[in-house]
Amino acid sequence: MRFDSKNLLAFVIPVGLILVWQALSSLGQLAPEVLPAPTAVVAAGWRLALSGELWTNIGISAWRAGVGFVIGGGIGFALGLANGLSKLSERLTDPTIQMVRTIPHLAMIPLVILWFGIDETAKVFLVALGVSFPIYLNTLHGVRTVDAQLVEMGRAYGMTNRELFFRVVLPGALPSIFVGLRYALGIMWLTLIVAETISASSGLGYMAMNAREFMLVDVVVLSILIYALLGKLADTIARWLERATLSWHPAYLAH
Amino acid sequence: MTARSLTARGPAAFSPIAQRQTSGTTRLGAGGKGATVTLRGLSKSFGVKPVLKNVDLHIPAGQFVAVVGKSGCGKSTLLRTILGLEAPTAGDVRVADAAPNVQAARIMFQEPRLLPWARVIDNVVVGVRNKSDKSAARAAAQNALDAAQNALDEVGLGDRGGDWPSALSGGQKQRVALARALVSHPRLLALDEPLGALDALTRIEMQGLVERIWREQGFTAVLVTHDVSEALALADRVVLVEDGAIALDLAVDLPRPRRRGSPELARLEGIILDQLFRTGDRVAAEAPADALQEAYA
Ligand SMILES: Nc1ncnc2c1ncn2[C@@H]1O[C@H](COP(=O)(O)OP(=O)(O)OP(=O)(O)O)[C@@H](O)[C@H]1O
Ligand SMILES: [Mg+2]
Q: Cα-atom radius of gyration of chain B, to the nearest Å?
């Protein structure tokens, strides 16, 4: 990534906020038990990093997020494609999916705890459930709105169904699929935080809840910041993928 | 004479004008490279709505036919049925070719219909026939690229192969679409108002390009157009479709390249426009006998 003055501009506000926060803490305006100084948070991070606790928790959270995302995203993507391409499949499954979609997936937490206890399955299940709907909806929308004229051109030029799918339908649906992907990434972290906060014995959410019991405010703040960083990281990867695959799109053409 | 009486003729009586055209033409190789198109009693309805009504038409190999008519009269439907994109409700369509078993027809649409996610050259490759088997895949891909490059050179865009379609102007996009249609050396090229969206100057330029390539390659061309002067500038024969039937079948026996605004073109244009906007049967009766097909009425 290039770093020019425009990119630097994005850092002005976050860096400014941290400086003000540090200044207020150093001047004694912020009580450490309300909001510890940035240096204290960094120190807490260092401590946990050295003990290895931080990495274990980040690892377990990332694993849950990843597995849940792959399962839920895969199912949503497959159903979106199937229902976009086949009327029969759509009539069969879409009404049910639309009905289940209206249930806020976090409302399932009590039931999920009853079903799976607090082990990994519960978290992965919730993430997968939450992630599948945005991917499903946007994939379906993308496939449906592929330019019919291009499809007709493909047929008139003798493309097989397979060629038509890979050369016309999928690339045409991709921008919409990416919208779903980025939305799903947001839901993925949200679901995981809530699930880990409520019922877990490991992971970042657990680390934060556990720290709260011992009044370790610095660790709580640290966990929140790490969530933010991970979310940003996932979004950056999605954006990078988007740029790489949609380079033909006028919105992404090199300026 | 009405449109009905013109099309009510039997399947055996195919256009004598068409035959006169081929025997009169001196273009080399035209007979061998173009496909012959024969429609017999062709009807097409969408639901209960009849769009084409018992159309008979014979287009000899290598002929350039223009189809004109008011909006909604069924021109596109006629073209799409010839290409097999629509199945006829009744009657049959035969596209006979010197080399059978070759999918020989290509269509150019009103819009360029380029894949926005494929580079210009890859868009032309879409038109390459015989996407071959796996074993020779690499050599075939290279051949396809070479053919596409040649086609792009032919339409004057040889240096734009690496661009995205969105970087091209409207006229350039349509030229890429022409290259895509021509890259497989089709026996029959169907053009559905391909120049309709272009500005007047670009349109004249494109007409020249289409005419030049048609003369070089000798395929059969069917051009649907709103523009009567375009039809007369390019075609050997102008077919006027009215209400789903052929109302006028006019030979244009003029040397090429044709000079715009010549009195002969103006006279033919008058005949067509009169038929298009005629009141009752008056015009058909006034039209010169040699231009109208009434012999077999
Ligand atoms: N797929 C379809 N389903 C139903 N009706 C159709 C369909 N395609 C065409 N029609 C109808 O058939 C008639 C002829 O359509 P067509 O597109 O052939 O007209 P056209 O002569 O090409 O008109 P234009 O010059 O405006 O392109 C129109 O009335 C149109 O509404
Ligand atoms: Mg049309």
A: 19
| Cross-chain residue pair A156–B107, CB shorter than 8 Å | yes
> Does residue A140 form part of some domain?
yes
Residues whose CB falls within 8 Å of the CB of residue B217, separated by 6 or more in sequence, listed in order: B33, B182, B185
State chain A's maximal CA–CA distance in angstroms.
75
Euclidean distance between CA atoms B210 and B204, whole angstroms: 10
CATH number of the domain residue A222 falls in? 1.10.3720.10
User: How is domain B4-104+188-295 classified at the CATH fold level?
Assistant: Rossmann fold (3.40.50)
Cα distance between residue B222 and residue B231, in whole Å: 10
Q: Pick the residue whose CA is nearest to atom 18 on ligand 1.
A: B74
Tell which atom from ligand 1 comes closest to the C-alpha of B86: 1
Tokens of B293: 């097909």
Check if the beta carbon of residue B216 is closer than 8 Å to that of residue B153.
Answer: no
**Residue B236 near residue B249, CB atoms below 8 Å:** no
Ligand 1-lining residues (CB < 6 angstroms): B 46, 51, 69, 71-77
The tokens of A36 are what? 């510890």
Nearest CA to CA, how far is A243 from chain B (Å)? Answer: 13
* Residue A147 pLDDT > 70: yes
| Domain range summary for chain B, segments of one domain joined by + | 4-104+188-295, 114-185
| Residues 6 or more apart whose Cβ sits within 8 Å of residue A146 | A168, A169, A172, A173
Residues ≥6 apart with Cβ < 8 Å to B87: B81
Strands B64-68 and B49-59: unpaired
For B271, residues 6+ apart whose C-beta sits below 8 A from its C-beta are B248, B250, B283, B287, B288, B291
pLDDT of residue B98: 54
In a domain, A255, yes or no: no
pTM assigned to the model? 0.80
Q: Which amino acid is at A85?
A: L
Per residue in B250-264, pLDDT (tens digit) is 999 888 888 888 888
How many domains is chain A built from? 1
Tell me how long chain A is.
Answer: 255
Counting residues of chain B whose pLDDT is more than 70, the rounded percentage is: 78
Distance, in Å, from the CA atom of A64 to the CA atom of A127, rounded to the nearest integer, reads: 8
